[in-house]
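User: I'm writing a tutorial on reading structure tokens. Could you give me a worked example: one chain, its sequence, then its tokens, then a sentence or two explaining what the tokens reveal?
Assistant: Sure. Here is the example chain.
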Amino acid sequence: MKWLFVDYKTYPERLAQRYGGESASKLPPVDIIITTADPFKEPPLVTANTVLSVLAIDYPVQKFACYISDDGASTITFYSLVETLRFAKIWVPFCRKFDIETRAPFMYFYKENTQQSNNSDPNFVKEWQEMKDEYEDLKRRIMKASATLEVPVDSISHDVDDGFAHRSSDIRNHSSVVKVLYENSGDERDILPHVVYVAREKSPKVDHHYKAGAMNVMARVSGLMTNSPFILNLDCDMFVKNSKVIQHAMCFFLDCKFERDCGFVQFPQLFYRSIKDDPFGSQMKIFLSTLARGMDGLQGAIYCGTGCFHRRKALYGVPPAADQYNNKDGRNFHNHAKVFHDLKTSSWSLEVLSNTFGPSSALAACAQTVMRDTQYIVHSSPSSAIDEALNVASCCYETNTAWGKEVGWMYGSTVEDVMTGFKIHCLGWHSVFCIPEQPAFLGTAPVNGPDSLVQMRRWVTGLLEIFLSKLCPFLGIDRDIMVRQRMVYAYLTLWGFLSVATFFYAILPALCLLTGKSFLPGISNPAFAIAVALFVSIYGFKLFEFLRIGGSIREWWNNQRMWLIQCLSPFLLATFDVLMKLLRVSETVFVVTPKGTGEEDDCCESDFTFDSSSLFIIPTTVLFINLAAIVSGSVIFVAGRYHIFRDKLFAEYFCSLWVMINLWPFVKGLVRKGKRGIPWNVVTKSAALALILCSSTWRQN
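And here are its predicted structure tokens:
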């Protein structure tokens, strides 16, 4: 995979030449979906800035719509969006008038003050200051509402048919809410696109499928209201940095030689809120610079969950146009594109459409136009589709349909993005990893140890769920996916099992040292040179990869250290979680990663922090065992038993030292207090577990 790097270069100015002026009407429409779930972990001010950056995208406003999915049905989030729309009516024209590139106001005002002196327009400075004052006022109102948990009474209607009127305090139990916050019509037609707020219905008795369920609701609602052939999905903290991002994506969709060459376009996840040298290994630079580019040389990059443009029909289970009428065996075609096969053989009957997309005849008609590449049917205005949108946003709508199984975002994994991307690749589609010169999107990475480990645990849990599901990369011989692409997915989905081997390799040298036994060659053994060569080559190559992409030695070391911590903590617990799920003891849980407010002072220090989570028990246990082994080895050396230490135990001693150095944040955590110290309940549990493992080894000897 690393031998097949492919780098694409886009020329959006050529697209502008082709579709400029009157030809702009030929540009395809795009539905942009922004997801948020918890106003406490995902502050409304962050969501507001993302929405503002989307509304100011350099694309005809009649050609895109913005949908906000609020899975918490929060009145605070809704109020912040209402206030954001008022500010957007002056912010978007300001960006277009002065050609502002950074269109998230919090980043623009706090990172690009130099633009005041760079603009020659005499009115710029005055308007800049007025705009900043307006944004500060917006920020103050949103922050006040978030702090007091109260919103002005007149900001939210409480009509009998309003979903907020029936909302309980439990975010897992509320009725659906669909509101058109702004409609692109009338005298203000050229200012903003359609803006629609959606909070799907939730009930404790119905499985909501986390983010995948929310995205499928948004696919249905947007399908009814605008039915654009392309969908962009963004997390609420991923603001638009490149105002021409849609043009960059359309360069692939509109100019690919064959339709199958571009099922979705994934942009890299880059971060503005990061710490120097990536102390928590959360920026994924090696993945972006090597693995993703290497996959472009196969069938394309994986879907990463945000910053991705999709063909709607690919999400609906339609294979590429070149494959729909080929001579493939009918049975095989039925297996890897079941929805399209069933609909085509039934002559697109309403009954089969209803079985696939649900009882809404309006949604079925819109889906049919997308799947058959006919003229798109849209309502005259989003407001006219609200009643039907409330229906498709209900919690029971998906019962006995293909949603989550063959259509839309796939269910069954906490990483619905990778699973959905794999499903699309299995249909025969290719994907593209686009890295424009100016970053398309910027977001937030976890800025402390616990958040980083929690996020990684969710990812690895979801990857293992994919491996153990019907979409396992090793199953389905008739799937239209390259063998090497399968191998990439197998490599990713098997990450969790690395933890088992890593755990035993992390304690085996230490246990051998404690019992006076050896399994590694001594210094005088010629095989010792082989072990040294393997060690140097592995770590040397990883260092070379970081230096090649402009990273530092410190950054390489931080990522290397975090890899061991991740294998001993979230990877191992994720494997245990999936095992418990297979045994039907418990279910896996989707945990939302906390985001900051986006302000400069949100950035935490590079020191590792701890809490009472079980995530820290295994690494601390491994540290205790290796510390005991180091003390034992040192005693042997000091006691003058040099020949035993040199010929039998040196390699084991070095391995224990290496593990301890990798776990140095935990060593410091043992002597520190507060959030930078390991809690005593974690220390006592780890010490007891280490004692049990060591004593069982001694008894066997």
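What the tokens reveal: The first strand starts at residue 30 and ends at 36. Residues 325-331 have pLDDT under 50 and may be disordered.
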